[in-house]
């Protein structure tokens, strides 16, 4: 794959990987906290006497948020592995980030389409999702480049 880069944020790729992991951790933690709020504390039209969701729409929406929470939490943990890879320089630590990052990019793209079709043209929401999508792609490319550098015979030094 030819999408590898040599520098990130005007510094060595190693430190760029650290920077993107820290920024990604903060952003993903914010998403996890918001998703947790939406999944657990939002009124999902539950019948409180029987603890059953009223309609299949709310049932689907609830479990969509739970899946989003799971993937973003896994991605948050993979950011810790990227930070560890800066010091340990083990390419296996980056594989989880690359997988969860790809899943997150696909999920964000699907969510972008959903907002466009189902909710309508909400300019600020679409702008935020689009920016997040672009940043997620850049972060994935940096992590992939760091993975390729560690994998190379020179060993990333």
What is this structure's SSE topology?
Layout: E1 7-8, E2 11-12, H1 13-40, E3 46-47, E4 52-53, H2 56-88, H3 92-119, H4 123-151
Antiparallel strand pairs: 1-2, 3-4
Q: What is the total tally of β strands?
A: 4
Label the overall shape.
Answer: elongated
Proportion of residues in β-strands: 5-15%
**How many helical elements?**
4
Assembly form of the protein = single chain
The level of helicity is over 70%
Structural class: mainly alpha
Whole-number mean pLDDT: 76
Query: How far is it from the N-terminal to the C-terminal residue, by CA?
Result: 21 Å
- How many domains make up the 3D coordinates? 1
Keywords: Membrane, Transmembrane, Transmembrane helix
Transmembrane segments: 12-33, 62-88, 95-120, 126-147
Describe this structure in words.
The protein has 157 residues and is mainly alpha-helical. The chain has one domain. The protein has 4 helices and 4 strands. The strands form 2 sheets. A two-stranded antiparallel sheet has the order 1-2. β3 and β4 form a beta hairpin. α1 packs antiparallel against α2, α1 crosses α4 and α2 packs antiparallel against α3. The radius of gyration is 18 Å and the shape is elongated. The protein starts with 6 loop residues before the first strand and ends in a 6-residue tail after the last helix. Keywords: Membrane, Transmembrane, Transmembrane helix.
């Amino acid at each position: 794959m030819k999408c590898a880069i040599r520098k990130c944020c005007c510094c060595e790729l190693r430190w760029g990987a650290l920077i993107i992991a820290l920024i990604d951790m903060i952003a993903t933690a914010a998403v996890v906290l918001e998703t947790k709020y939406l999944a657990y504390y939002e009124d999902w039209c539950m019948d409180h006497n029987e603890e059953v969701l009223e309609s299949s729409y709310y049932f689907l929406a609830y479990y969509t948020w739970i899946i989003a929470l799971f993937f973003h939490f896994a991605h948050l943990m993979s950011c810790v592995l990227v930070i560890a890879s800066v010091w340990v320089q083990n390419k296996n630590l980056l594989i989880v980030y690359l997988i969860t990052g790809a899943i997150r990019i696909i999920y964000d793209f699907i969510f972008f389409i959903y907002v466009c079709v189902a909710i309508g043209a909400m300019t600020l929401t679409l702008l935020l999702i689009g920016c997040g999508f672009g940043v997620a792609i850049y972060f994935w490319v940096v992590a992939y480049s760091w993975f390729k550098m560690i994998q190379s015979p020179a060993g990333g030094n």
